[in-house]
Write a structure and sequence with these properties.
11-stranded antiparallel β-sheet; alpha+beta; outer membrane lipoprotein receptor (LolB), chain A; single chain
Length: 227
Amino acid sequence: MRLLLALVLAYVPSATSLLKHTAGRAQALGRAREVTLSGVLFVSGEPQRNAQLVLRFPLQCRLDGEGGLSLSVKGTVENPGAVGEGTAGPALRLLQLSCPFLAHRGIPAAEAPQALRTAALAAGAEVDAAAGLSRFGDRVTYVLGAAGRDLSTPQLWLYKDNAAPARLIAQGGADLRLLQYGSPAAAEWFPRVIELWASGQLAARFEVLEAKGVRAATQEEEDDSRE
């Protein structure tokens, strides 16, 4: 019995299956076309500022903040991260890496998993090369692209309980972390905290305080039934 339990706990689905589940999470957003996440942005060496992360589906993200900050990314299925617009730095890198995993709603269901795969590959993570289990804080994650605890290799982490993106370690050492899903402040579907680490130091952090524009699929079904 213990051996069977160990095998069950150690079982890791294929990258294709996991990415399909990750892409399928977007159904919970219903027919939303744009979501605005308002909060505070920290960038290393700069004062904290109020900021808004605007997600226009699919694959368009804009980060505006006090002091004239204006950054944007517009991707495609073939190039989800695309080339960002705005001043290069940790905030733009955070936006480029996170956008495909936050704004993939609206991509045809058959293409969405491939868009996530392409985003991981663009960061250097060969998601089919290796797979395993790890822990991220107090939660279990699937790790795609690296074996064991090798954090020097680009890799994508997905939370085991809900298939949400958890972490993306990119080529060059950029470490994107998507934290605290399930918070009402971030409409439950989005991470409440998005961080970018570099060389073991926090380089940028966006904390969501309010979300606007999210209409859950269940709400839309109720509205449709009243019509």
